[in-house]
Amino acid sequence: MKRKIVRLMLVGLTAAALTGCGLFSGHHSDGDDVIEVSDDEDNEDSDDDDADDDKDDDDTSGEEQETASADGSYTLARTPQSDSIMYYDPSEDKLYQIDRKELAGEVSNPDPEIYRIYDEEEYYKSTLIGAGDGFLFFRDNVSPDSNGDSTSIVYAIGVEDKKIYDIWKNTGNGYLSGCEYYNGTLYIDYIIGYDENYKSLGDNVVGFRYDKKSDSFEEADLDEGLMTIINTANDKDAHIRRSGNFSDAHVYDECGYLPAYMDGGLVLINSSGTTLKVPGFEDAYDAYYDPFRIFTVLMNYETGVGKACVYDIRSGEVTEVSDERGANTLLGKNGFKYYYSVSDSEEYGIGHNYIYEYDAETGKTRFLYDVKSEPGSSIAPGVEGFTLTDTYIYYVGFEKGNIFWMPVMIEDPSSPCCKYELGYETLFDYGTIDYISTTINCPDCGTDLLDIYSEYLILDDSISEHTDQINEYLYQKATDFQDYESEGLDDLGYGSSCEDHKDHPAWYRITDDYYVSSVNEICGHYLTVDMTGYWYGGGAHGYPYRGQFLFDLDTGEAKTLSDFYTGTEDDFKRLIAEKTKEDFLSYDMDDYGSPYFAADADSAYEQALGYISLDSGNYEFTDDGIYYYYPPYDMGPYASGFIDIFVSYDELLGTNSL
């Protein structure tokens, strides 16, 4: 099938240009662990490619618009496994939409199990690295061979010729730590591997450039200073730290050093092998760097409040640059400008994401925009898909069921911009989503002890003559979810002292969330409303929730499995247990791939009998049958999640449908 490339309009679009500025000049001094930094911040690369940026782009009519000149390709994707990829081609100043499934159909793929361009399951897709010079770049990890060794691979696909280009592979117990296409070279950072005592063998980096004559990617020579840093880190048992999505070569080009983790702390290593210790940043695993500074968010895990901070390499001083809202997440950098977000709630479950820019050259923090969350959406508004170009910030937005890419002009965030549609959430075909939110505070000190959020579907009148009846039922279920028994309030910390509340607020806070996840019509007469949720009360993780409501659209009545199943409770238990045994046998125990606690199929059968119940509600209706599911810890560990067992209606009811 010939892939259709959708040409989209984009006004004033330019690509990110993170140019090296050569401002970090390091050398050995008479003392140890000293890196000297030039104080001249005005020597930034003066190349200016924006001479054409003054075009009049105010016309946003239906005709395609030429965009301001850009100096590099890039991609927009919600996640690295997204089905929809938007690719910016600077040679045409156009943004194209590429569908993974259609792309997979066009590529002459020698081995779909290795080059996993598309699969229905997100887990089985190659990770998108980025784009450049007419190529999309992907990384993947091929399943272990008979020796237990897996192979990391990196490959490219030509946007025009749909050809796969092998670039790099590494077999063994090492792994990729990052990849980036930067200045015409694909840089690959990786851990070499581990010895018999599981000690790291160190880091390495390789680069590849496309050679037009051979139509292949050839290994490129890397800067000697960069390799000196890598070798110094390996000699000192230091491990290079990532800086956002930037490659080691990119960070070195901009800064003249690389950050590394050594002896329990952060150090900077320059091209002469000198190391500089950075005290107080041991927990700053996510950080961005420039020749003079380190930018990060330091979190207080007791309070859950963070602050955006800058470490000055020259003076050793740490300065907080966030305003009274604080900071939560690092988002990116462009030159000497850094971007971060902070989340705040007007009420629990309905939050705002506020986006800020910190300009390291001026020392000023600037608020850019905020986006409010919407019931029925799992999108992190304003930050999901956050992508920087020279002119725009892109993020994934959501409004009344519509998902879109939203461009925000960095210099004028209030300037109106065209949205680019990504699709529509089908649950909004049936109505709208509303919510109930409750917060219970300590009556003496006001500490937040319990937050409850529950969504419910408001069905559209056109779906059934009994819409009001269905809506009342769903609203009551959401209300019931809000009701905590009064005798359980002591568990929320009412019996603890306010001093403890204030010193350790995170210890006493419980959150309980309940979401509408999907709505579907099945078998011509029924409506299913699927719910998910998550309870958290401290510790390593919380506990997930899953449930479904089934309604007869002809009567408005809520139905359960007992309304259809005519067998006995024991019949039901034996049927589900036998299907569980079959599912157990579908896993290869030699590969340690089983999600079950049980060591053999008969044990799985016997354990299942103890958990199965017709009235448990642990099932979901589909067109063809039901999924009976075991919550975490019933039949398997928490990491296994819900274990689903499919039973057809023919096996369950003796009919082809519900």
Features:
658 residues; mainly beta; Actin, Chain A, domain 4; 3 domains; 6-stranded mixed beta sheet; 9 helices; disordered N terminus
Q: Mind explaining what this structure looks like?
A:
With 658 residues, the protein is mainly β. The protein folds into three domains: 1-223, no CATH class; 279-422, no CATH class; 428-652, Heat-shock cognate protein, ATPase (Actin, Chain A, domain 4, Alpha-Beta Complex), CATH 3.90.640. Helices cover 13% and strands 38% of the residues. The protein has nine helices and 37 strands. A six-stranded mixed beta sheet has the order 29-30-31-32-33-34. A four-stranded antiparallel beta sheet has the order 1-4-3-2. β23 (350-359) and β24 (364-372) form a beta hairpin. It is globular and about 80 Å long. The protein starts with 5 loop residues before the first strand and ends in a 6-residue tail after the last helix. Mean pLDDT is 85; it is low at 1-70.
Under CATH, the homologous superfamily of the largest domain reads Heat-shock cognate protein, ATPase
Portion in strands: 35-45%
What is the CATH C level class of the largest domain, in words? Answer: Alpha Beta
Q: Strand order of the main beta sheet, please?
A: 29-30-31-32-33-34
- SS content category: mainly beta
| Global shape | globular
Please state the average pLDDT score. Answer: 85
Overall number of domains: 3
CATH topology of the largest domain: Actin, Chain A, domain 4
Biggest sheet descriptor: 6 strands, mixed
Q: What is the CA-CA span between the terminal residues?
A: 37 Å
- Helical residue percent? 10-25%
> What is the number of E strands?
37
CATH architecture of the largest domain: Alpha-Beta Complex
**Total number of helices:** 9
Unreliable spans: 1-70
Structural Rg = 28 Å
